[in-house]
Design a protein that fits this description.
Two copies of one chain form a homodimer. By secondary structure, chain A is α/β, with parallel strands linked by helices. Chain A is about 45% helix and about 15% strand. In chain A, strand 8, helix 11 and strand 9 form a beta-alpha-beta unit. Chain A is elongated and about 90 Å long. Chains A and B meet through helix 4, helix 5, strand 2, helix 6 and helix 10 of A and helix 4, helix 5, strand 2, helix 6 and helix 10 of B. The structure holds a DNA duplex (16 and 16 nucleotides). Chains A, B: It comes from Terribacillus halophilus.
DNA sequence: ATGAAAGCGCTAACAG
DNA sequence: CTGTTAGCGCTTTCAT
C-alpha cells in the first residue's frame, strides 16, 4: 500500500508538505501543491484513514443507536437522523442493540475510545444511573426517548399527543378504553399519563386498562382476536400506540364483524402510510420526526464545535390526523 | 486517557507483556497475567481501539450497503444481515446510499483503507464496469441483487418466483397483466423475465405491460386510482413487486369498487405482515431472506479466513403464498 | 517468559 | 514556505 512517504519522495518534498496539501493548509507554494496533487492523482493514493483518525483522535463518525431497524417507526427515525448527519458532513453509523445492554455499552465504549465523535441515542436498554454514567464518555444526545438526563434530549410531546388522541375518542362517547404500549419507557409512560389525564377529565380514570408489548401487526391481530372473540368485549376504544398494531386490530375487528368505530374506536400513532389504507382509515397522530432529528444534529454540532454549549430539553408537538376509525 | 504504558508501569512490567495479556498470548506467567488483569480492572483501562486497528490493519467491521433503511424489504434484509454478522463476532456497520454513487464509493474506499474488513452489498447504484473495478478493493460480497460479477453473489431466484406468481394468475384466466418494478436492476429484470416467460407459455407475451418506480403504498394507491378510475381498465391482473405497493393498489381498487380478484387480480412480493391484513388478503411470495443472509456471511467468513476461497453464485428459492387476491 | 526496540502512516510543533 | 523531529498507542520481532 502506498503511503504519504512514497509520494513525498516521488515529488522530492517532505511528507509534511504532502500532509499539508492533503489537509488544505495554507503556506504551501502553488508549485509544490500542484506537483503533489498530480502525483496523488496519478498514483491513486488515498491516505490511510485509520492512521489519520488515530493521529487526530477524531473520526467524524456519529453513532446512531436504535433498538432495531426493521421497525417502521425506528426505520424512519434512523433515516431522518442519518440524513441530518450526512448533511452536516458526518458519517452516520447505525448500531442496533435489540434491547441488549452489552451491545449498547459497546457503542458507548467506542465513543470513549474516539472511534465515534458523538452518539445519538434513540432509545436505551440501560437503567437510568448507568446511562447517566455513560454520558460522561462524550457527546451523547438523545433523540426520541424522553430521559431525564443531563444532556440534550429531543423528544416528542407524547403526553400531549396521547391526551389529544384520547380526548378525541372520549368526545365521541367512548368510555372503556384500552391503552397499548410497546415496551415500558419514559416516553411510553408519558403517553400513558396523557391518556390517564384525558380520562380523568371525564371521570373515567378508574376503568383504564393497559396492555404491554404490542409492537407488530401480528400483535394487533392477536389482541383484537382475543378482545372481539365473543363479540361482547367491554372495551369500546383502543389506543393502539402504533399504526401497525392498530392495523392488526382493525383487521381482527373486521374478521369478528365488530364495527369500527361504532362498536369500538381505534387510534394509531405515527401516521405511517399504512394508516391511509386500513378499513376504516385510521385516526392517528403525526409527529415531526424530521424536525426533531434535524434539531438533534444541530445541537450535536454545537456541542462538537464546542462554543458555549448547554444541554437542552426540547419537545416537539405533532398533530392529530382524524380519520374514520374514531 | 490511560494507555498501555500506564498500566505497564503500574505493574512493573513492560508494555509488551501488557499487550500479550490483552491479546491472550501464551507465554505470560500466570503471576504477571493476574497482576496486569487486576490493574486493568482497577483502573478501568480500555485499549485505544483506533490504535489497535491502525496497528493491526484490521477492524472486524463489516459494512452493509443498502439504498435505504426505511423500506420494509431492505430493513428486514439489513436486519438479517446484521444479526448474521454479529453472530460471527463482527461489527456490522450499516451504510445507506440512497442510490447515490458517491456515497457508495465512499464506503468502498473504507475497505481499501481497511476501515472495513469486508462489505456486503445489497444493491448498487454503480454501473457494472465500475462496480467490477471496486471489487478489487477487498472482500465485497453481494446479497440480494443478482450482479454478474466475479465475487460471491447470493440472491433470490426472482425469475422463478415471478414465473410462479404470474403462472398462478394466468391459471385463473387472467390475460392482461401489468408488471411493476421498483427500479430497474438485474434482479428486477430477472423478475420481469420470469413474468414474460409465464406469459409466453400462454401465448400472451404480446400484451405485457410494465411500469417502473413503484415502491411505496402511495405509489400503489396512485397507480390503482389511475388504472381503476373509469372502471374500464384493460388490465385484469397486477404483479405488484412488493406487498406495500400491492396494498396500495388493493386500497384503490376498493375505493373504485373494483372487485379483487374477479375484475382484477393482484399479487404482492415479500410476504410482509401487511399482506395478511389487506382486503382481500394478498397472494404473495415468501423468500428465505434470513437463510440467504446467513449464507452470505458464511461465505464472507470463508473469504476472510482465507482458506481456499472461490466465488460462488448462490440462488434461493422461496415459495408462493396463495391468498384471496388471486 | 519477558523486555527493548522498531515501527504502523500520519500530523503537528518547531525551527529555520 | 518547508523540512526535521517527535510522537499518537499499540503490536511484533528479536534477543535474552
Amino acid at each position: 500500500m502506498r503511503t504519504i512517504n512514497d509520494i513525498a519522495r516521488q515529488c522530492g518534498v517532505s511528507k509534511s508538505t504532502v500532509s499539508r496539501v492533503l489537509n488544505g493548509h495554507p503556506y504551501v507554494s502553488e508549485q509544490k501543491r500542484q506537483k503533489v496533487l498530480s502525483a496523488i492523482e496519478e498514483t491513486g493514493f488515498t491516505p490511510n484513514n485509520l492512521a489519520v483518525q488515530f493521529r487526530k483522535r477524531k473520526t467524524s463518525a456519529i453513532g446512531i443507536i436504535t433498538p432495531q431497524v426493521d421497525h417502521p417507526y425506528f426505520a424512519s427515525l434512523v433515516q431522518s437522523l442519518s440524513n441530518a448527519c450526512a448533511a452536516k458532513g458526518w458519517k452516520p453509523v447505525i448500531f442496533q442493540t435489540f434491547g441488549d445492554k452489552k451491545r449498547e455499552l459497546d457503542v458507548f465504549a467506542k465513543l470513549k475510545q474516539r472511534e465515534l465523535d458523538g452518539i445519538i441515542l434513540t432509545s436505551s436498554a440501560l437503567e437510568a444511573p448507568l446511562l447517566a454514567h455513560c454520558l460522561e464518555n462524550g457527546p451523547i444526545l438523545i433523540c426520541n426517548e424522553k430521559y431525564e438526563m443531563d444532556t440534550t434530549v429531543c423528544s416528542l410531546d407524547e403526553e400531549s399527543a396521547a391526551y389529544t388522541l384520547t380526548m378525541h375518542m372520549l368526545q365521541t362517547g367512548k368510555k372503556r378504553l384500552l391503552f397499548c404500549l410497546d415496551q415500558t419507557s419514559p416516553s411510553q409512560e408519558a403517553r400513558y399519563r396523557g391518556f390517564l389525564k384525558a380520562l380523568a377529565v371525564k371521570n373515567l380514570a378508574e376503568g383504564a386498562k393497559r396492555i404491554e408489548a404490542m409492537v407488530t401487526i401480528e400483535d394487533g391481530i392477536r389482541l383484537g382476536s382475543e378482545l372481539f372473540r365473543n363479540n361482547q368485549s367491554l372495551i369500546d376504544g383502543i389506543f393502539a400506540g402504533s399504526d401497525f398494531v392498530a392495523a392488526g386490530i382493525l383487521h381482527a375487528a373486521k374478521q369478528h364483524q365488530i364495527s369500527v368505530p361504532e362498536k369500538c374506536a381505534v387510534t394509531g400513532f405515527d401516521n405511517h402510510p399504512i394508516s391511509r389504507i386500513t378499513d376504516p382509515p385510521l385516526t392517528t397522530y403525526d409527529n415531526e420526526i424530521a424536525a426533531m432529528a434535524q434539531e438533534t444534529t444541530a445541537q450535536l454540532d454545537l456541542q462538537l464545535t464546542g462554543h458555549s454549549y448547554v444541554p437542552k430539553h426540547l419537545l416537539w408537538k405533532g398533530y392529530l390526523v382524524p380519520r374514520n376509525s374514531t
